[in-house]
Specification:
The complex is a heterotrimer of chains A (100), B (629) and C (169). Chain A has 100 residues and is mainly alpha-helical. Chain A has three helices and no strands. Chain B contains 28 helices and two strands. Classes of the chains: A mainly alpha (100), B mainly alpha (629), C mainly alpha (169).
């Protein structure tokens, strides 16, 4: 018993960084969205650990909302991706340069 | 501005005198343009009340020693303050009375002269505008107020010269007058600014009082000369004198009112108004004297060859204004102002008489008028002779007294050149005046046959009686005014204490002036008046001289050349180049810089979602550093 | 080293490994499958940290619904293995640089934070207790979240509808 809180935070940080790398480097809209999910997951881990650390339920409540928002974000994001794919036939973010 | 409801009759009268014409102007323009008789009635009522108020003020304050001033602060900022209001002192009272009286007479006369004109209402509106501006100019306590109304007077002049705007030459003349007077006004305004900067206010009383002594002599000289620039423009002095003859394109009553009696005299009035200020700078006085002399002589010579009756009086106006400025610049305040007063009367009379002839014979040419029987119009002819005599300085008439005073002042100067110039001017004046009189009175044989038909026709022109009455009144004034010389001089000098400058007595001067006048009259009679005279002046015998005088000393040509060479060739080109190269270049350059900058910046704008994501993360990282470390 | 600690390290290794593999897959289906393992790991961790309800939610919503949605879309669009240039250096270099900076800063923060070393004590939140807490203390947030989901449904419907219409025209 007795994992230091810092370890869990470090784990959460690593997960967030992995998600960040995924979101910023993969040339695929679906992978970008996956990266965002991974980052949200990392945040959720940090919140759970904090709830345990301070013995407060707010952290867990936050995780609940994170899950809800992630669900909303994913469904809308995927709908947009489908829409864009139908319009342009590509998932590469480099091809979305109409405004440039 | 000024407390209303005051029981101060002076204030009420002054407000009535200065504000009513504006009411008439506004009402005519806004409401009664379609009803000419009502418009004329309004305008006449306003100016009549104005005259009554002016007369009341003159009688009430006859002999005041201290000026009365009503003023309210209008602009104040830092150590600069400008006020508006009313200043009543002998000079402004006399000028106000002159302006109101001549305005009223001319407006009555115009009832006949302008009858049936399609722009009758407009004419009276502009006349009221002029009356308003001129009365306010007269009573202005500060130079700024004076300047504002000075410009309004110029506007009224422009509108009235170009009154028959469908005539090309009239609208051209209006523009010319406006632009040329504006040249002088720029100098005037610069002078105002100079004084404002150095003195902190523009009060005429302070400028004339001890405050001006605080200014350095250089500033006084520069300010006086700049203000004199405005006077040159407004009073048509050399070198800005050529607009006045062209201004005769306007209706004759307008010429009588604006371009001889009152508006152009505003310049001289300003000089008299600031007389103590000008006196502080001998240099400025010297320049004024020279300009006045040159203008007087040049204009006289021009008048000697013109055949257009109104042009002759226009040149004569310039020359008489020059004479007034000479009198003032010679240091004799009373002489200048008194000549201004008498000149207003007899010159308005001259113009109005000429107006009757022009109205009757539809010609400005004095020879034509003479041939067609101008002498049969007895009342105008008699009045014309009286006025001409006054202009020439023949003894019982008013011009004699005022001219003698000016010549006396000139004789007081150490340099005899000035008095010689003055006497020469008097000689020329008499010559051209009587040349005109004799040509009309004793027309050369040959044209008499047409005279009968036209002579009987004149009675049919409407409004002859209404035009004749102002003539008679003005003629009476021209005769009588001279005998009030002593009283007026005393009245004018009151504010300066009772120190009447004891004029050195020049016993020879009246005889010399009279002798020269008589000689000029004889010469004119010999050339134009006697039976069988060739009606060819001695000037016309010398072709180059004639050309020189007839072409107005080539002043207009010089202006044309200057305009072509300097303004069109040089300034316009410079301005065009400035427009194209600098302004356009600046605007284009700005656009180009922005476009180029946008091009550079668009590298950042890759249209790639993930770069933005990276930027977001970077900023989060920076915020983390800022907040936690 | 207690069982608890061992479990934590094992789960942490599972999460990091599966996530790292997931984000480097060229094949999107593989990536999603690996990520599902990562999310299962998170669910274990939640259970370990005393919130079985959230662990169940994680499995149902994340691994069950969201990831299946991803799979569904990938298969619908037939983009299982697009010709993707993996990790282009133009994006990789700044990303790695900033990730390293991020990790460094985070590490510094953790080392310097005195409370980071505080050991986590065991605790357990019953689903009933958690539900009561949520619906008494945070009912407004729940309402807002439900509203957000409603908006999302409508938005997704709208977005999904339009191309069909354009095709008809």
């Amino acid at each position: 018993m007795g994992i230091p809180f810092g370890y869990v935070l470090a784990l959460a940080g690593i997960v967030v960084v992995l998600g960040m790398i995924c979101a910023t480097t993969r040339r695929n809209l679906i992978m970008i969205l996956l990266g965002v999910e991974v980052m949200l997951n990392g945040a959720a881990i940090a919140f759970i650990a904090a709830a345990l650390r301070w013995q407060q339920l707010e952290g867990q409540a936050f995780v609940l909302f994170i899950i809800a928002i992630a669900a909303a974000e994913v469904s809308l994001g995927l709908a947009l991706i489908v829409y864009l794919y139908h319009r342009t036939g590509s998932l590469n973010p480099e091809d979305y340069q109409v405004l440039k | 501005m000024i407390a209303v409801g005051s029981t101060d009759t002076t204030l009420l009268a002054a407000i009535a005198a200065t504000k009513l014409p504006f009411v008439a102007f506004a009402v005519i323009l806004l409401l009664t343009r379609r009803r000419p008789r009502l418009s004329a009635g309004l305008s006449l009522t306003a100016i009549a009340v104005s005259l009554a108020s002016a007369g009341f003020l003159l009688v009430k304050h006859w002999g005041i020693a201290r000026p009365i001033e009503y003023a309210a602060l209008w602009l104040a900022g830092g150590d600069v303050s400008v006020r508006v209001g009313i200043l009543i002192d002998p000079l402004s009272l006399i000028m106000l009375a002159v302006v109101a009286a001549i305005c009223l007479l001319v407006q009555v006369y115009s009832l006949g002269y302008m009858a049936g004109d399609p722009g009758f209402s407009r004419y009276y509106a502009f006349m009221s505008l002029f009356a308003w501006a001129m009365t306010n100019l007269t009573l202005a306590p500060t130079l700024l107020q004076l300047y504002i109304f000075w410009e309004l007077v110029g506007l009224a002049s422009y509108l009235l010269i170009g009154f028959w705007y469908e005539k090309f030459s009239a609208s051209e003349a209006g523009k010319k007058a406006f632009v040329m007077t504006r040249c002088g006004d720029v100098a005037f305004f610069l002078g105002l600014l100079l004084i404002l900067v150095h003195l902190g206010n523009l009060d005429i009383r302070e400028l004339n009082g001890a405050a001006a002594g605080r200014l350095s002599p250089t500033v006084v000289t520069a300010g006086a000369l700049l203000i004199f620039g405005g006077i040159i423009g407004k009073s048509a002095q050399f070198p800005l004198l050529t607009w006045l003859p062209d201004a005769m394109e306007g209706p004759t009553p307008v010429s009588a009112l604006l371009h001889s009696a009152t508006m152009v005299a505003a310049g001289v009035y300003l000089f008299a108004r600031l007389f103590p200020f000008f006196s502080l700078s001998p240099t400025a006085l010297g320049v004024c004297l020279a300009v006045g002399t040159v203008s007087m002589l040049i204009a006289s010579t021009m008048a000697m060859v013109s055949r257009d009756i109104k042009q002759v009086w226009a040149y004569s106006t310039i020359s008489q204004l020059g004479l007034m400025i000479m009198g003032l610049a010679a240091g004799n305040y009373v002489a200048g102002v008194f000549h201004l007063t008498t000149h207003a009367a007899f010159k308005a009379l001259l113009f109005l008489c000429s107006g009757v002839f022009i109205h009757a014979f539809h010609s400005n040419d004095m020879v034509v008028i003479g041939r067609q029987g101008g002498r049969r119009l007895r009342v105008p002819m008699a009045c014309l002779v009286i006025a001409a005599a006054a202009l020439s300085g023949i003894p019982p008439f008013s011009g004699y007294f005022s001219k003698e005073r000016i010549l006396g002042a000139l004789a007081d100067l150490p340099n005899p050149l000035w008095v010689a110039a003055g006497l020469l001017g008097a000689f020329l004046t008499t010559y051209y005046t009587f040349r005109l009189i004799f040509i009309i009175l004793f027309p050369a044989p040959g044209g008499e046959d047409t005279a009968q038909s036209h002579g009987s026709e004149h009675g049919h022109h409407g409004g002859y009686a209404v035009m004749a009455w102002p003539l008679v009144i003005l003629a009476a004034v021209s005769v009588a005014l001279g005998f009030g010389e002593k009283a007026v001089a005393q009245f004018l000098l009151n504010p300066f204490g009772s120190v009447t400058p004891a004029a050195a007595h020049h016993a020879w001067l009246p005889y010399a002036a009279l002798g020269l006048s008589a000689a000029a009259m004889l010469l004119a009679w010999f050339e134009f008046g006697r039976r069988g005279a060739g009606q060819i002046g001695f000037v016309e015998r010398v072709a180059p001289l004639h050309a020189l005088f007839g072409e107005r000393w080539y002043i207009d040509r010089a202006y044309r050349w200057l305009l072509d060479q300097v303004v069109y060739r040089l300034f316009s080109r410079l301005c065009a180049r400035n427009d194209q190269k600098i302004i356009d270049g600046a605007v284009d350059g700005l656009g180009r810089v922005i476009a180029a900058g946008g091009g550079r910046m668009s590298i950042l704008h890759t249209g790639m979602v993930q770069y933005r994501l990276i930027v977001v993360f970077v900023s989060i990282a920076l915020m983390a550093i800022y907040f936690f470390i | 080293m207690t069982l608890f600690n061992m479990l934590f390290f094992a789960i942490a290794a599972l999460i990091v490994a599966s996530t790292a593999i997931a984000i480097t897959r060229r094949n999107l289906v593989h990536a999603v499958i690996y990520l599902i393992f990562g999310f299962f790991g998170s669910a274990f961790l939640f259970y370990l940290f005393g919130s079985p309800f959230l662990a169940a939610l994680m499995v149902i919503v994340y691994a069950g619904a969201i990831m299946i949605l991803f799979l569904f879309i990938i298969m619908m669009l037939r983009v299982e293995a697009p010709e993707e240039h993996l990790f282009p250096p133009r994006q990789m270099l700044p990303a790695v640089f900033f990730a390293a900076a991020y990790v460094a800063i985070g590490g510094l923060l953790l080392i310097n934070d005195p409370s980071a070393g505080a050991p986590l004590t065991e605790a357990r939140t019953e689903p009933a207790e958690f539900g009561r807490y949520i619906f008494t203390q945070n009912w407004l947030a729940v309402e807002i979240a439900s509203l957000l989901l409603l908006v999302t449904i409508i938005g997704a419907l709208l977005v999904g509808q339009r191309p069909a219409r354009e095709d008809e025209e």
